[in-house]
Amino acid sequence: MRPILMKGHERPLTFLKYNREGDLLFSCAKDHNPTVWFADNGERLGTYRGHNGAVWCCDVSRDSTRLITGSADQTVKLWNVQTGAQLYSFNFDSPARSVDFSVGDKLVLITTDPFMGLPSTIQVKQIARDPNEQSSESVLTIKGPQGRINRATWGPLNKTIISAGEDAVVRVWDTETGQLLKESDKETGHQKTVTSLSKSADGSHFLTGSLDKSAKLWDARTLTLIKTYVTERPVNACAISPLLDHVVIGGGQEAVHVTTTDRRAGKFEAKFFHKILQEEIGGVKGHFGPINALAFNPDGRSFSSGGEDGYVRLHHFDPDYFNIDPIPVFLARGGTLKNEDFVA
Amino acid sequence: MAVDMGKLRWGELEDDAEDLDFLLPPRVVVGPDEKGVKKVIEYRFDDEGNKVRVTTTTRVRNLTRARLSKRALERRSWPKFGDAVQEDAGARLTMVSTEEILLERPRAPGSKAEEPKVAGDPFAAMGKAGAVLMVCRTCGKKGDHWTSKCPYKDLAPQTDSFIDKPPGAEGAAASPAGTGKGTYVPPSMRAGAERSGTEMRRRNDENSVRVTNLSEDTREPDLLELFRTFGPVTRVYVAVDQKTGVSRGFGFVNFVNREDAERAINKLNGYGYDNLILRVEWATPRPN
């Protein structure tokens, strides 16, 4: 495959998001302008101008009319996707790290970083249908986890909130009361900062990537650990294929070490794993720096990666990607097939 | 602020470049025509204050596979906004990688990389004496032949991305004064450039078979697959429209042995392939 290189950002990429139909790709970077691209040919459609700091995360509404972005300039902004006009700006006292629309787009989940003595928070805000009636009041504020909360997302039916961050613990909270319901086990869970969290297409399970050089697959309801994918690089980004039983994991050595080592030593490929067999099935090279963001097109036929090098690389899979059979390699490595692995 | 074009000095230009833009003719977009070739003609001042015309030719191809929803189609026609508005066609923010990136499969422990093997290779005997130093960069064979002599040269991976080359790669500048040079055509695109160089020589190879009535999706590897069963093949070529990249429906296959070619003609002429009936015959040499 010949990836499409998109060089719209001047600073490292931080996040990538497709809209529901998979025709638009939103990219966030440490420069201040989130950008939207056509996801098939990589043409730039527009930029959202107004932030005054690194943009860490974004989410797009189901009908692709509203974009929400969280930035280090201590604001979360709501945008009109089509015109790039800013509709509303939520102001915080600390940088916003992650944003996520609920199912139905009526609520938004925002996490803020610990800053100037303030603890990190998870906040829920209502999104008004008419932006003129938008209020900045939080419906729910959760405090407690130590350190940055890198990702927070809605659990099944918006009933729970799943969060993960610097303290390496994955937590499930009750949306109504804000109470802690479940916590991942310290023994089997991640050992270092969780950097990314990505839900499956149906929301039944999710994948977390961590600097402990592994990614883990969890059940969204019970928070049981299902699978672990071990790699040899810190994981910055991960995504679950909506089409095949694949997960993709990206990362690489920290940016500060890049200049002192060989390019190959950086391990900047995006690694594909078989979701069930936990077997590596392939790697896609290309970035000159660690991968900070990964996203699968909702049709599962293309994926994009964003790197510390400022490039977004959009890959449309070759036909042979869809015929990869991981079982021979798996068996050659001494793996055994278990029946229950294939019964969902 | 009216500035007389005749008396411009570079010093003034430096400062007022922005203000002079109104003197330029507007941007013209031609096409896309039925072959999907779109031309954008822009005018700007270059560093020396000369008016320059920039013609960017891009190929637009609709993806048949991509089934866009009604909403997505509507979004296609949304006007650009933000920084994308002033983006000129030459900005090249989006490029197709020139490098072919493969999904690198990990190998099972203990297994070796597969080496491509072709049965009945006429060059196999030659390689026996040769040192291992000879490695073909096209097909990766060791000791068989040099890269320039590779029988599979024409089968080297072809560009099959949906925008060919970086879009706007054919950017060209011509002085409006009209030096009479027209637009720049890259050597690879010039009529008969590479084709006449390397391929004319091999075209006089005998045992050439012409295949017509090919379907549009037939590529060279498909043709090779079809013909290699009759014997060693030295060249497979499918005629492709230079502009649109669509197959023109005919191709040539060269055999090492004349008997193999003859058998192929007997067997495959009238053979049904991709819903079309193939016509296979001896290639007639070009009149010139």
Architecture overview:
- The complex is a heterodimer of chains A (344) and B (288).
- Chain A has two helices and 28 strands.
- Chain A is mostly beta strands and 344 residues long.
- The model of chain A has no long low-confidence stretch (mean pLDDT 91).
- Chain B is an alpha+beta fold.
- Chain B is 17% helix and 20% strand.
- Chain B contains six helices and eleven strands.
- Chain B has a four-stranded antiparallel sheet, with no helix packed on it. In chain B, strands 7-8-6-11 form a four-stranded antiparallel sheet, covered by helices on one side.
- In chain B, strand 1 and strand 2 form a beta hairpin.
- Chain B is elongated.
- The N terminus of chain B is likely disordered.
- Chains A and B meet through strand 1, strand 4, strand 5, strand 25 and strand 28 of A and helix 2 and strand 4 of B.
- Chain B: One of its GO terms (molecular function) is translation initiation factor activity.
- Chain B: It is found in: Cytoplasm.
- Chain B: Belongs to the eIF-3 subunit G family.
- Give the N-terminus to C-terminus distance of chain B in angstroms: 62 Å
Alpha-carbon Rg of chain B, integer:
26 Å
Summarize the largest interface: chains and residue counts.
A-B, 52 and 41 residues
Categorize the overall geometry of chain A. Answer: globular
Q: For the largest beta sheet of chain A, what order do the strands appear in spatially?
A: 1-28-27-26
Q: Give the SSE order of chain A as H and E letters.
A: EEEEEEEEEEEEEEEEEEEEEEEHEEEEEH
Mean model confidence by pLDDT of chain B: 70
> Number of helical runs of chain A?
2
Tell me what portion of residues of chain A adopts beta-strand conformation: 35-45%
| Residues in helices of chain B, as a percent range | 10-25%
Helix/strand order of chain B, N-terminal first: HEEEHEHEHEHEEHEEE
| Distance linking N and C termini of chain A | 32 Å
GO molecular function (chain A): RNA binding; translation initiation factor activity
Family (chain A): Belongs to the WD repeat STRAP family. Belongs to the eIF-3 subunit I family.
InterPro entries (chain A): eIF3i, WD40/YVTN_repeat-like_dom_sf, WD40_PAC1, WD40_repeat_CS, WD40_repeat_dom_sf, WD40_rpt
Keywords (chain A): Cytoplasm, Initiation factor, Protein biosynthesis, Repeat, WD repeat
